[in-house]
Specification:
The protein has a single domain, classed as Rossmann fold (3-Layer(aba) Sandwich), CATH 3.40.50. Helix 2 runs parallel beside helix 3. About 45% of the residues lie in helices and about 20% in strands. The chain has a five-stranded parallel sheet, with helices on both faces. The chain has five helices and five strands.
Length: about 130
């Protein structure tokens, strides 16, 4: 059973797979999150500035700017450095995991994702921000 969340909790979802992004956005919206979607890291950075999310859920491999590149830019800006990231990817190879560890990312969820797993991770990340 999903926990009802305050609608003011904002999630930025960054993924180039439009169908997947729409589905996850709908599921998170049903859980009462306020969700904005961006289709790559560049659009994600633009939305970080205007939407000011509480959590960013991002794919790793995307055109124009990867999730890791976006992560580095968000973390290097004092106003956004404390925004937690949750990464999701269809690519779970050693190269991706090695790059993740290099930049300080230790949690990556594999696609296809388990919605309950995302909900639990979100609750955990958001509770740490209170």
């Amino acid at each position: 059973m999903a926990v009802q969340v305050d609608k003011s909790r904002k999630i930025l979802l960054v993924d180039d797979e439009v169908g997947f992004a729409e589905l996850l956005c709908d599921l998170l919206s049903m859980d009462n999150y306020n969700v904005e979607v961006a289709n790559d890291g560049i659009e994600g950075l633009e939305k970080v500035a205007t939407f000011k999310p509480d959590v960013i859920i991002s794919d790793v491999v995307m055109p124009r700017m990867s999730g890791f590149e976006m992560f580095k830019k968000v973390k290097s800006t004092p106003e956004t450095a404390n925004i937690p990231f949750l990464f999701i990817t269809g690519f779970q190879d050693d190269r991706v995991l090695s790059e993740a560890r290099k930049i300080g990312v230790f949690g990556i969820l594999k696609k296809p994702i388990d919605v309950e797993q995302i909900e639990l991770r979100l609750e955990d990340l958001l509770s740490k921000r209170l």
